[in-house]
């Protein structure tokens, strides 16, 4: 029994309807499907470079480079000759083959149609952006030569990103109960909603952590790859017996609360079993009943007499 000479505030053990919450941290990464390599389908030379710097933002259909390729130029000539021949003598097979050859060289339908309508060919070929995004890699400069199958650019779209959150092994059991996820990155006022999509099937042996992939819509591209972010997760609301976090004290690996006795100013320490609910409350699993009064600030009860007498 502990007797306190000061006024001590108590709270009632109560039932509360709330959702269990969990906080984890992770990093923003690029979504795989929003990363595109622009690859050369032929060899050639760079005449003019429009995407001339790293991290330049481009839109789908923007010109990235103007190039010259002997192979492409010859294919254009063959198509033009096929158009002229077909005008004199119907040869749909030859015309179709010449057109398909240009497509197999990744020449745009726009340029092919231009040849058909104008009956003229351009010495140069323009390479266009297949997707809107940022130039994350640039392998050519103005005047460069390039080989067939060489990667010229990498374009990354950030309108939707992944967050790879780290979870401790003991947290995996609760994962299926968590349904609502929000993401907050330091320095950004926006709180983002997220969706869980995949728990990676391997753990980091050094940290004993699993990785949970969350998909985050990022329409204003505020979140950047490499950012450290906080993930707040919660499940369905349910009714639990709770006490404030301040009402519990951990000592020697066990939890205690101080329950009010029938004698005013005297409090008895009791062993309890808890699990976290959120940043304000613990769920009481064992040791307390609804309606009992406990000291609101258990740390206040750690006086020297109690410790000397090994009451708890």
TrEMBL record:
Annotated keywords: Transport
Domain called CusB-like three alpha-helical bundle: residue spans: 73-121
GO cellular component, one term: outer membrane-bounded periplasmic space
Segments forming domain CusB-like beta-barrel: 160-236
GO molecular function, one term: transition metal ion binding
Pfam families reported for this sequence: 3HB_CusB, Beta-barrel_RND_2, BSH_CusB
Transport keyword on record: yes
Gene Ontology biological process terms, A to Z: copper ion export; plasma membrane copper ion transport
Ligase recorded as keyword: no
Domain CusB-like barrel-sandwich hybrid: 40-155
Alphabetized InterPro entries for the sequence: 3HB_CusB, Beta-barrel_RND_2, BSH_CusB, MFP_Cation_Efflux
Domain of life (superkingdom): Bacteria
Descriptive protein name: Efflux RND transporter periplasmic adaptor subunit
Organism: Sulfurovum lithotrophicum
